Amino acid sequence: MSYETLLVEQRGAVTLIQLNRPQALNALSSTVMKELIDAFAKFEADDSQGAAVLTGAGEKAFAAGADIGEMADKPATEFFAQAFFDGWQKGIASVVRKPWIAAVNGFALGGGCELAMMADMIIASEKAKFGQPEIKLGVAPGMGGTQRLTRAIGKAKAMDLCLTGRMMDAVEAEKSGLVARILPAEGFVDAVVAIATEIAGMPRLAALLNKEMVNVAFETTLEQGLLYERRTWGILAATEDKAEGMKAFVEKRPAVWKGK
Ligand code: CAA
Predict the structure, then answer these.
(1) Which residues of 62-91 are buried (b: 16+ CB within 10 A; e: fewer)?
(2) Beta bridge partners of 8
(3) Considering only CA atoms, which residue is closest to atom 47 of ligand 1?
(4) pTM for the full predicted model
(5) What is the mean pLDDT of residues 136-145?
(6) Which SUPFAM superfamilies does the UniProt entry name for this protein (predicted)?
(7) Phi and psi of 104, rounded to 5°?
(8) Is it the case that residue 58 has pLDDT exceeding 90?
(9) Which atom of ligand 1 is nearest to the CA of 69?
(10) Angstrom distance (rounded) from CA 100 to CA 180
C-alpha cells in the first residue's frame, strides 16, 4: 500500500518507514499518525519482518513536532472530543511488540522527540537535535514528553529542556541517556538498518520478551520487576530456540533459529 505521508520498504527482515513531508520538516499531522498506525500494524502482522526502523525523509529532520498548522485554530473542545493525541499511544507505543528503532537524522522536536522516545532505542546521527520547545507555543508536550523524557534523562535535564525549550545535540543526548548510539551522518540510515537486521536475526520470541521485560522496568517496583523477569525467563527456557541456542554454543556452531 502506498501512503500520502510515509515511504515504507522492506529491506530483508527489516521494515524501513520514512516520515515523508520534508517540506514541513516531517511535521506530524493526523494523517501521519493514521498512516503510521497502519504501517506499524502491517509490520507487526508480517512474519517475515523482525524489526523496524523509523526515520525522516530529507536532510534536515526526523520530525519537527506535531503539525502546528493543523493545531493553530483548533478549538480546545475538538482536541478533547477527537482524542487528538491518543492514537500515538494506543495505536503505536503500546501495541508494537516487535523491536523498532528511531533513527534520528536531524531535528526531533516536540512530538518528533516524543515519537522517537516511543521507540525501543534511539540511534542518532551526529546531526541530530532533540528538544521539547512546546512552551514557546504556549503549551507543553502532549505525546509523552514530560513523562518519557523525565524517565529517560531525569528531572534536572527534562525540566531544563521543557522550561527553556532549548535543543540538545546528539552528544549531550547520548551523555544524558536518551540516545543509545551516535553514528556518522554519511550512510546513517543504512547503518541503522544494519543494526536492525542484527536484531531481526535474533530468536524472535527472545526479542519480543527482552523488549517487554525492559519496558516492565518502567512500570513497576524492583521486586515485582525481578519476579516478572524470572517468570518470563521461564517461558523462554521452554522454547525450541533456547534448546537450539545452548546446543549450538556447546557444539561451537551457529544457531539456527525457529522463532518458537
Ligand atoms: N508544524 C508545521 N510546520 C512546520 C513545523 C511544525 N512543527 N516545523 C517546521 N515546519 C515548517 C515551517 O513552517 C516551514 O514551512 P514553510 O516553508 O511553508 O514556511 C518548513 O517546515 C521549514 O521550517 P523553517 O523554515 O522554520 O526551517 P528552519 O531551518 O528555519 O527552522 C526549526 C527549523 C528550528 C525546526 C523550526 O522549523 C521550528 O522551530 N519548528 C517548530 C518546532 C516546534 O515548535 N515543535 C513543537 C510543535 S508542538 C508539538 O509537538 C506538540 C506536542 O507535544 C504533541
Answers:
(1) bbbbbbeeebeeeeeeeeeeeebbebbeeb
(2) 17
(3) 65
(4) 0.98
(5) 98
(6) ClpP/crotonase (SSF52096)
(7) -90, 105
(8) yes
(9) 2
(10) 13
Phi-psi region of 14 (alpha: psi -120 to 50; beta: other; left: phi over 0): beta
Task: List beta partners, residue 100.
Answer: 52
Sheet holding 167-169, edge to edge: 61-63, 107-109, 129-131, 167-169
Nearest Cα to Cα of residue 257 among 233, 234, 241, 235: 241
The answer, yes or no, to whether residue 168 has pLDDT greater than 80, is yes
Whether ligand 1 lies within 6 angstroms of the CB of 174 is answered as no
Q: Are 16 and 52 in contact (CB under 8 A)?
A: yes
pLDDT of residue 201: 98
Cα(133)–Cα(190) distance, integer angstroms: 30
Distance 83 CA to ligand 1 centre (A): 23
**pLDDT single digits (tens) 197-222:** 999 999 999 999 999 999 999 999 99
Largest CA distance in the chain: 66
> 11: Cβ–Cβ under 8 A, 6 or more apart, which residues?
193, 197
Which residue out of 32, 68, 132 has the highest number of ligand 1 atoms within 8 Å of its CB and is therefore the one to mutate?
68
Decide: 106 in ligand 1 pocket, CB within 6 A: no
Residue 53 has φ and ψ, to the nearest 5°, of -125, 130
Quick check: 243 and 237 in contact, CB under 8 A?
no
111 lines ligand 1 (CB under 6 A): yes
